[in-house]
């Protein structure tokens, strides 16, 4: 005989119950016991690691790392897609306009100070936000910042427990050696619960050779991957591997530039008419006298450059609401370089362009007890990393622009409803059920005509809405 309709229903309930209840049980959040302390977290940035390098180069160590954990293929970073703004967004969860580090070169009209990446330790620049290595101190945690932008800055009167300022002569091995030591602690002092570490490649070489120089970039990416191998073996040596959560990510990507794609400002206006605060590929200008007149000269200056008055900067860039944003912003199209004058190309590769351009996006990989093994996400945002890290460390996040829901499916023991998968399964089950039902009716009809009672029973059952299906 055939299965009756109530049996299908039971099967469907069981299947849906399995889909929705099992992940909830797996969280074990209803145990009522005090939670064990969260595992330590290590955040590592390889500057300028474009998402597409993962597809173009082998990266065996990195692949082995995320095969045991999570890969996010693209991360939408914040505008401007530069090093300092995005590194500060990673550890604050804020857009540049809200954390105040809006560029590599800044001028603050209130304090009349200048910021440059080699002269950046004045706390006033950083204090509009608070990085995780400071906030985590409030939970009684030790923290560490290894050459991350802002590491040595006294922010809200504090620094990380351990930190070192940027020093290009310190090797990767020395940096990871010190970080693992900080994370392990020594009998007297507890290990750091949160550590952020910075490495300057493949950014440096991407600027110098251009990302399209596959010969040179494959060597550089091999070195980066070797360093990831070193990181894994150092963590294993310190018995931290498998005990700590590790996030490997970057601040931005890289695109090829060319001498054929130069935009010279001198062709449009006299240098006496403005002060230049920042140049390529996003220029910040302060007009000397008449803002409108200067803007009119710039708005039609070049077909591959867009000029914005501060108040007209598109909302989606989240780059208007800060007094450090200058009255005029010039934005070059992908691969174009703005110079003051002449025809010398300063860099073969560059970044900083509109954050909707895929070549500007970095990636994210993660592994450790807090992450779901084998999870693959197509994209999240750079600002989503901060609430994720706060969740992993069980500390309350400061106000930020990220969304925890975007990263839930990365975390072990979090309810993760993979919406397409659930819809697919439900549709599949319904298809099978209706096929079987049609077959059943057909065979039933062949065997004997359905009585009115049969229809009544089916109708009554059909209107019995299953809440799980809503
Ligand atoms: C660094 O910036 C401060 C503040 O703008 C300025 O006073 C100082 O001269 C700068 N130092 C260097 C070495 O440029
Ligand atoms: C900053 O910290 C120092 C010592 O750590 C303390 O003496 C001082 O009062 C603090 N200042 C503020 C404004 O909290
Ligand atoms: C820590 O860094 C210093 C350089 O600042 C280096 O001499 C030392 O070997 C490093 N420590 C480890 C354990 O790698
Ligand atoms: C890549 O860079 C190297 C070193 O600068 C250079 O010799 C080579 O011609 C470049 N290749 C391409 C395709 O640009
Ligand atoms: C540019 O500067 C010159 C003198 O330096 C001045 O005469 C002219 O009005 C300025 N033009 C604009 C658009 O500000
Ligand atoms: C980003 O977050 C900050 C802090 O909560 C908030 O002030 C700001 O309005 C947010 N920005 C956007 C675009 O939501
Ligand atoms: Zn960078």
Stretches where pLDDT is under 50 for at least 5 consecutive residues are 14-31, 454-470
Query: What profile does the largest beta sheet have?
Result: 8 strands, mixed
Shape: globular
Whole-angstrom Rg: 27 Å
Major sheet: arrangement of strands: 6-5-7-1-8-17-2-18
Assign the structural class, choosing from mainly alpha, mainly beta, alpha/beta, alpha+beta, or little secondary structure. Answer: alpha/beta
Quantity of strands, as a count: 18
Gap from first CA to last CA = 31 Å
Strand content: 15-25%
Which ligands occur here? Answer: 2-acetamido-2-deoxy-beta-D-glucopyranose, zinc ion
What count of helical segments does DSSP give? Answer: 13
Integer average pLDDT: 89
Estimated helix fraction: 25-40%
Cofactor: Zn(2+)
GO molecular function: bis(5'-adenosyl)-triphosphatase activity; metal ion binding
Membrane topology: Single-pass type I membrane protein
Keywords: Blood coagulation, Cell membrane, Disulfide bond, Glycoprotein, Hemostasis, Hydrolase, Membrane, Metal-binding, Signal, Transmembrane, Transmembrane helix, Zinc
């Amino acid at each position: 005989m055939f299965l009756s309709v109530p049996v299908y229903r039971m099967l469907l309930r069981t299947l849906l119950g399995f889909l929705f209840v099992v992940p909830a049980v797996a969280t074990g959040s209803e145990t009522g016991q005090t939670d064990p302390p969260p595992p330590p977290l290590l955040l590592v940035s390889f500057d300028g690691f474009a998402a597409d390098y993962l597809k173009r180069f082998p990266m065996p160590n990195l692949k082995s790392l995320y095969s045991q954990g999570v890969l996010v293929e693209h991360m939408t970073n914040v505008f401007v897609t530069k090093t300092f703004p995005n590194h500060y967004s990673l550890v604050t969860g804020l857009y540049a306009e809200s954390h105040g580090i809006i560029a590599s070169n800044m001028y603050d009209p209130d304090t009349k100070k200048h910021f440059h990446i080699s002269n950046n330790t004045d706390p006033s620049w950083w204090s509009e936000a608070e990085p995780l290595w400071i906030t985590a101190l409030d939970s009684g945690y030790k923290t560490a910042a290894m050459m991350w932008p802002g590491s040595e800055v006294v922010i809200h009167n504090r620094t990380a427990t351990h930190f070192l300022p940027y020093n290009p002569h310190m090797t990767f091995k020395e940096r990871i050696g010190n970080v693992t030591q900080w994370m392990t602690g020594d009998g007297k002092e507890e290990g750091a619960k949160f550590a952020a570490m910075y490495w300057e490649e493949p950014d440096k070489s991407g600027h110098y050779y251009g990302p399209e120089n596959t010969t040179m970039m494959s060597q550089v990416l091999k070195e980066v991957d070797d360093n990831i191998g070193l990181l894994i073996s150092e963590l294993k040596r310190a018995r931290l591997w498998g005990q700590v959560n590790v996030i490997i990510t970057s601040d931005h990507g890289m695109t090829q530039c060319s001498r054929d794609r130069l935009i010279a400002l001198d062709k449009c206006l006299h240098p006496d008419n403005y002060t230049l605060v920042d140049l390529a590929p996003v220029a910040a200008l302060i007009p000397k006298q008449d803002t409108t007149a200067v803007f009119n000269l710039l708005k039609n200056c070049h077909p591959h450059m867009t000029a914005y008055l501060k108040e007209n900067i598109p909302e989606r860039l989240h780059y208007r609401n800060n007094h450090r944003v200058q009255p005029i912003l010039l934005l070059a199209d992908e691969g174009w370089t703005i110079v003051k004058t002449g025809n010398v190309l300063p860099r073969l590769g560059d970044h900083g362009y509109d954050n909707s351009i895929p070549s500007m996006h970095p990636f994210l990989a993660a592994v450790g007890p807090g992450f779901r093994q084998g999870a693959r996400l197509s994209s999240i945002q750079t600002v989503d990393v901060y609430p994720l890290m706060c969740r992993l460390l069980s500390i309350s996040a400061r106000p930020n622009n990220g969304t925890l829901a975007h990263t839930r499916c990365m975390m072990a023991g979090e309810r993760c409803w993979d919406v397409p998968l659930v819809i697919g399964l439900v549709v599949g089950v319904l298809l099978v059920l209706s096929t079987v039902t049609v077959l059943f009716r057909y065979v039933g009809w062949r065997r004997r005509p359905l009585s009115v009672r049969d229809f009544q029973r089916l109708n009554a059952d059909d209107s019995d809405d299953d809440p799980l299906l809503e």
